[in-house]
Amino acid sequence: MPAMKYLTWAAAALVAIAVLRRPDQAAQALNDAASGLSRAAGSVAAFVEELG
Questions:
Q1: What's the rounded Cα separation, in Å, for the pair 9 and 45?
Q2: 3-state secondary structure 1-52
Q3: Contact criterion met (CB below 8 Å) for 18 and 26
Q4: How far apart are CA 42 and CA 48, in angstroms?
Q5: pTM over the 0.85 mark
Q6: Rounded distance between C-alpha atoms, residue 25 and residue 16, angstroms
């Protein structure tokens, strides 16, 4: 499992570097991801409502 631990730390470091170097693009990416999750949740809610 040490490899997974190192990969997690490496991914976190890359995210931190991206946020520090281009905060506007990082904020837009986060906004896009949140918007996508919101749309997905709305679709699931509509599907469940149609079931019953």
A1: 35
A2: CHHHHHHHHHHHHHHHHHHHHCHHHHHHHHHHHHHHHHHHHHHHHHHHHHHC
A3: yes
A4: 10
A5: no
A6: 13
Chain centre to alpha carbon of residue 29: 8
* Closest C-alpha among 34, 35, 31, 11 to residue 23: 31
The amino acid occupying position 32 is D
Q: What is the pLDDT of residues 4-50, one digit of tens each?
A: 999 999 999 999 999 999 999 999 999 999 999 999 999 999 999 99
Tokens of 47: 């599907």
